[in-house]
Amino acid sequence: MKLRTTCNRDCPDACGLVAHVEDGRVVRLEGDPDHPVTQGFLCYRTRRFPETLQVDPGRITRPLARATWLGRMRGEPVAEADANGFVEVSWDEALDHVAAELLRIRDTSGPAAILTYRCGGSLGLLKHLVDYFFEQLGPCTIKRGDVCSGAGEAAQHADFGECDSHDLDDLRHSRHLVLWGKNPTVSNVHLLPHLVTARNRGASVTVIDPAYTRSASFADTHVQPRPGGDLALALAVAGLILARGAEPPDLDTWCEGLEDFRALVFGKSVDAWLVEADVSLPEAEALAVALLDGPTAILVGWGMQRRGNGAAIVRALSALGALSGNIGVPGGGCSFYFKRRGAFDVSFVRGKKVAPRTLSEPLLGREILDSDEPPIRAVWVSSANPVAMLPDSRTVARALETRELVVVCDAFLTDTARRAHVVLPTTTLLEDDDIVGAYGHHYLGEVRPVVPPAGEARTDLQILQDLAPRVGLDGVLDRTPRQWKEQLLRRVSDRGASLADLERGPVRNPDAPQVLFEGHRFPTPSGRMRLITTLPQPLDDADPRFDLFLLSNSTRYAQGSQWSSERRLHAGIATVHPDTAARVGLGPGDPARLESPIGSMRVTVRTDARQRRDVVIIPKGGWLDEGTCANVLVSARLTDQGEGAAYLDTWVRLVPLG
Length: 658
Ligand SMILES: Nc1nc2c(c(=O)[nH]1)N[C@H]1C(S)=C(S)[C@@H](COP(=O)(O)OP(=O)(O)OC[C@H]3O[C@@H](n4cnc5c(=O)[nH]c(N)nc54)[C@H](O)[C@@H]3O)O[C@H]1N2
Ligand SMILES: Nc1nc2c(c(=O)[nH]1)N[C@H]1C(S)=C(S)[C@@H](COP(=O)(O)OP(=O)(O)OC[C@H]3O[C@@H](n4cnc5c(=O)[nH]c(N)nc54)[C@H](O)[C@@H]3O)O[C@H]1N2
Ligand code: SF4
Ligand SMILES: [Mo]
Known about the structure:
Layout: E1 2-6, E2 16-22, E3 25-31, H1 44-47, H2 49-55, E4 64-66, H3 67-74, E5 86-88, H4 91-109, E6 114-118, H5 128-137, E7 142-144, H6 150-160, E8 176-180, H7 184-187, H8 192-200, E9 204-208, H9 214-218, E10 221-223, H10 230-243, H11 251-254, E11 255-256, H12 258-266, H13 270-277, H14 281-292, E12 296-300, H15 310-323, E13 334-335, E14 358-360, H16 364-370, E15 378-382, H17 386-389, H18 393-401, E16 405-410, E17 422-425, E18 434-436, E19 443-447, H19 460-467, H20 481-488, H21 499-504, E20 507-508, E21 529-530, E22 548-553, E23 558-559, E24 562-563, E25 573-576, H22 578-583, E26 591-596, E27 599-607, E28 615-619, E29 651-656
Parallel strand pairs: 6-15, 7-14, 8-9, 8-12, 9-10, 11-21, 12-13, 15-16, 16-17, 22-28, 25-27
Antiparallel strand pairs: 1-2, 2-3, 4-5, 4-17, 18-19, 19-20, 22-29, 23-24, 26-27, 26-29
Helix pairs in contact: 6-15, 10-12, 10-13, 10-14, 10-15, 16-18
This protein binds ligand MGD (2 copies), iron/sulfur cluster (SF4) and molybdenum atom.
One ligand MGD is lined by residues 10, 119-122, 147-148, 306, 382-386, 389, 409-412, 414, 426-427, 432, 460, 552, 559-562, 620-621, 630-631, 634, 647.
């Protein structure tokens, strides 16, 4: 039997999936050939997902409770526990105890003592109901900021007044494509057919990335700046364009801040900017030529903006787009993020407007530990693995280990789940019932269960529907998934994007533009685009003992912290230039240690002569408890705007073991 659904993973592509189901099991998963973006193929990690599920011993299918905690709840010791200290309990017992504890904590310390933390484990829109539920219970404490795209979104709002992208199909008008800090062969594979089509038409592709990636091997040109040097590179190229007087003659009429931007650019010579960027003049000139020979689309990656000057970099790229005449024209644009929630009405969640307190996501561990009046006593985690994925993993772990109540909803026993008092088993992408938009294109899709939930797993919505009457919230979530989907779609349902339409297949968001800012009209207060005019203070912590930039990047073998089982060993592999390894007496396959000012981790050395000599590359999502978690090395620090996490401003050294 073939059943269709949509992938709900934290990925720009939101693919249409075709599941081949036999005896209630998915035996094969394919890309939907009829989905205009998916085009019949899938990424490695999701194609292998059904197999991963079968071999992964970590799948949780019954509620788990920590034996010591359960003993306290029951008033009598609980004898047998598994190696992680858990015992299986019934849903009723798990939810009864959790409800009693949540109410006790709320009633003694107020709802601000309860934190809900949700990240991108599932991009399903119904997951907003978790936020809604805790708003009704409290409102409770929530996170602020965004470790994923906070800096870039803030940058685009600052420049353009909104953050959205040109349609993917608009790339057919581009003469050049610049993939700036973007590695679609790993993170956005359904962009690749568009790149191939563009190449076949004669368009050029430039990749700008300090790392040598498979995308770089595909490109006509690869520029390999110093990590974070993109800001200087963009200003150098701006200098070349302005020196030639090649900017649009009417630029001043639709841009604010041109004079100050000019002063910023000419504050240093092009050569001085290029020394900072570690890029040669001919490379910068070639980039200026490609931008001026437009239309040229600048496709801004998400990786690059997770650093102290991340927002400034993205702003400098928009300015470059404007200066080279590529803003507001077909085939151009400076596209960072597709507004994936744009079609949906999530106004029932009021978020920060009503929250009694917010904690900064990038600094979450420290903020929980320091919380006071009231301290955070309970944490509800869903669609997230903060211990592995947030900066400074050990502090996040300690923060959770010291709370009175930690409830983790997940399908796997992650580093975070292992620190919970109660783990509630959730559905995976094959069992979920939801609706998604994408951050890499403009199509919406319906997520439908193609198999029943394994064991006793439930969706987050079902879990909260069962919890509701136990905490005095009878009825607040009493609607079927279908009814919630209809509510979410109500703004667009009479324009070709009703649930019935989505049930027939993917539908383009009727509100999404093809080309942004045509006629140079911007939703800013003045109606003009705003150019960056000042630079952020650099994160000033150079320490000569740590001589390598740590790039903790996505890998094709994992989705965040969710690895394809057979590839999990890759989590501990560190890639460096052979000279970088040899300098400390190391070669390929050698065990070694990476040390940063805050931690160390064991790695296996892999060498690649195409990498810069000053970087080391490791996968972003390893396991803390298995010693492969990059975030033990990463300090918790903020990006210049948008409260993102500056993951990539991490300096390390490579040392032999022993
Ligand atoms: N060093 C470093 N760290 C990084 C990054 C980096 O570049 N470098 N990137 C950051 C980025 S971009 C992001 S977005 C974050 C991602 O961080 P997270 O979102 O925390 O990590 P994931 O592993 O993607 O997913 C978290 C969990 O969600 C669970 N999950 C999946 N579906 C559901 C569901 O329906 N319900 C519930 N309750 N759970 C579900 C999964 O099983 C998984 O364990 O990591 C960040 N961490
Ligand atoms: N296979 C796979 N795909 C994923 C994910 C995954 O975990 N695995 N995660 C998903 C998530 S959460 C997100 S947010 C998206 C985006 O996921 P990201 O991992 O943010 O992917 P990219 O946008 O491709 O950005 C990564 C690239 O930026 C480069 N980079 C780092 N620093 C700099 C710099 O200073 N300058 C420049 N020019 N480049 C730099 C890195 O070397 C890398 O090649 O992808 C999603 N897709
Ligand atoms: S993870 Fe991304 S590329 Fe892979 S199937 Fe899901 S949406 Fe498609
Ligand atoms: Mo992300």
